[in-house]
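A quick aside before the break. I want you to see a complete sequence-to-structure record at least once, exactly as it would be stored in a machine-readable document. Don't worry about memorizing anything.
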Amino acid sequence: MYQLHVRHTLTLLVHNGVISNFSSIRRNMADLLSFDAYCNVLGSTDSEHAAALYMTNLTNGGDKSSWQKEYALEDMFNAIQKTVVQILELQKKIVKDANTPNSLNFCTTDGSKLLAIRFRNHASQQPPSLYWSEFAGRTLNTKYPGNPDGKDIANEQAVLGDNERIGKHTIVASEPTTYDEGEWNLINKNCALLVDENGVETERKIEYDGDGLDARDPRFDGKA
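That is the input. The structure line, written in tokens, reads:
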């Protein structure tokens, strides 16, 4: 997992996965970046380039001053969806049929809104897991009774009673981090979880041309 705070912005972006054949599309991917986004890439990882492309799309190619603005959740969704499609289109154009599927699990937030996607461009393979919970925060918080490792394990650090409530929250994790898997929801394949300023969670499909942009996995599908 790669966690990246996009410098000089309100944005935090986390990427768990891989852009397949990244070295083959890196130069062309850089051409899609705004000038300031390109200058902000200091390394050579696929995650940094994906974050720069996301910021380019989110700000419509804006300069650094646009990075300090807050954007609507719909704009965040459209930007990450466009980022995914651009990556797939570059692979289709440059790598062609030799391309292999991507695992593009992204999570991004500006501190008040959150967007997480679970994506793999293969007809049947599942992306790496990505879960969300609006209940696990109480189990994980040592101030409250209960223990994340088991129902019958005492939490001797608890200072609050069983009737104490915890505020609205959303946790995103690759795997459930409490013993009770019922507290967790798996984000569906090729979908995005959107959490607005009020903590309301919705799930939306990532729209792309699966027939044209899905890739084959030679280890799974055999040779073409």
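Two observations worth writing down. The radius of gyration is 19 Å. The helical segments are 22-31, 35-39, 46-58, 73-94, 136-140, 210-213, 218-221. We'll return to this after the break.
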